[in-house]
Amino acid sequence: MVRVGIIGATGYAGGELVRLLLGHKDVDIKWYGSRSYVDQAYASVYQNMFQLVDAKCLDDNMEAMADQVDVIFTATPQGLCASLVNEEILKKVKIIDLSADFRIKDVSVYEKWYGIEHKAPQYIEEAVYGLCEVNREKVKKARLVANPGCYPTCSFLSVYPCVKEGLIDPNTIIIDAKSGTSGAGRGAKVDNLFCEVNENIKAYGVAGHRHTPEIEEQLGYAAGEPVLINFTPHLVPMQRGILVTVYASLKKDVTYEEVKAVYDKYYNDEFFVRVLNKDVCPQTRWVEGSNFVDVNFKIDPRTKRIIMMGAMDNLVKGAAGQAVQNMNLMFGFEEAEGLRMAPVFP
Ligand SMILES: NC(=O)C1=CN([C@@H]2O[C@H](COP(=O)(O)OP(=O)(O)OC[C@H]3O[C@@H](n4cnc5c(N)ncnc54)[C@H](OP(=O)(O)O)[C@@H]3O)[C@@H](O)[C@H]2O)C=CC1
Ligand SMILES: CC(=O)N[C@@H](CCC(=O)OP(=O)(O)O)C(=O)O
């Protein structure tokens, strides 16, 4: 059994990790880390865990945790993981960080977009960007994994085949993204109150969202050259789910069959990426509660652009599910262990 500790187990991403890990046959959760609920029963924070989890919440002492577990998930605000991690800890445990602390390789870019000083830049180079479909072999050997962001996961996987195969000009990419409110976390914020979100839709972070450089960096690796994009997220009145609609200019005339063959080349063997049938547009309801990303595309010969689409559950493939997928790779388990659940409906 792999012994697991979670720092931030009381947040939305941490709660989803608990739900998924309870269904993993090779995992024993030893430490439910919290800041505000220390000594309180975990199931009193999340009543869906009544009679399923008896443990009480513990603190966020990463050093003490490292003596008792094999892997630590940090599902905490930006900057916390970097402020806790050190060599002693990394000698004892593997770390999967769900925050953005180790996603961006250029520390000055991280500090600019996140507005905080990076407390452990010495580990940025070593950290592996945990997008399993692309970095699978590196993840297997990693001791520190940077779990990708939710919007970046959905955006990147939706366009990756077209960028990698040079079908589109990557610098013409425009990503229109929408997220449910759980993406903003459980902490109380006026913007996320029912009356603010319900019956409403709005853009936010326009021309300045912190996921922009993360998406650009990963697309840059795929394109083999620096990439600049426009990324506009929207908050929609749903609990879970991300939908992205991505526009880009085609470099040459292509047929549906040619582009479909490119998507199949990259995703035929990827269990969690489903390329939908012709003309079927991804919907968040068809992936909810699952680790799937549904993708598809449509060519617009009039404008010589291609429209690429993706849908994903922000808390699963966008956070906890992808983190478990990474853990499976790091510990030599079957990659889909604990993650084979079908999406819920309705
Ligand atoms: N929500 C999502 O869809 C996604 C989230 N993520 C990332 O996961 C991380 C957590 O996000 P999310 O679950 O939404 O956030 P929440 O606000 O729901 O949860 C934050 C968690 O961190 C804990 N925490 C907060 N401050 C501290 C601190 N100073 N020391 C220790 N623990 C602390 C909280 O503990 P307590 O409750 O006890 O105060 C809580 O458990 C973030 O980095 C986020 O970017 C990544 C992808 C998607
Ligand atoms: C709706 C909403 O607010 N979403 C969050 C993104 C989710 C998240 O926590 O970001 P990471 O994926 O980088 O961890 C935001 O826009 O900042």
> What structural category arises from helix and sheet content?
alpha/beta
Run of helices and strands: EHEHEHEHHEHEHEHEHEHEEHEEEH
Number of helices: 12
The CATH topology label of the largest domain is Dihydrodipicolinate Reductase, domain 2
Low-confidence stretches: none
**What's the alpha carbon Rg, rounded to whole Å?**
20 Å
Average pLDDT confidence is 98
What small molecules does this complex bind?
A: NADPH dihydro-nicotinamide-adenine-dinucleotide phosphate, N-acetyl-L-glutamyl 5-phosphate
The CATH architecture of the largest domain can be given as 2-Layer Sandwich
Give the number of DSSP strands: 14
> What is the straight-line distance between the termini?
34 Å
Q: Largest sheet, order of strands side by side? A: 3-2-1-4-5-7-6
CATH superfamily of the largest domain: Dihydrodipicolinate Reductase, domain 2
Helical amount: 25-40%
Q: What does the main sheet amount to? A: 7 strands, parallel
By CATH reckoning, the class of the largest domain would read Alpha Beta
Q: What number of structural domains do the residues give?
A: 2
Percent of residues in beta strands = 15-25%
Global geometry: globular
Description of the molecule:
- The chain is an alpha/beta fold and 346 residues long.
- It folds into two domains: 2-126, Rossmann fold; 151-314, Dihydrodipicolinate Reductase, domain 2 (2-Layer Sandwich).
- The chain has twelve helices and 14 strands.
- A seven-stranded parallel beta sheet has the order 3-2-1-4-5-7-6. A seven-stranded mixed beta sheet has the order 9-10-8-11-14-13-12.
- The model has no long low-confidence stretch (mean pLDDT 98).
- Bound molecules: NADPH dihydro-nicotinamide-adenine-dinucleotide phosphate (NDP) and N-acetyl-L-glutamyl 5-phosphate (X2W).
- N-acetyl-L-glutamyl 5-phosphate (X2W) is lined by residues 99-100, 149-150, 179, 183-184, 233, 235.
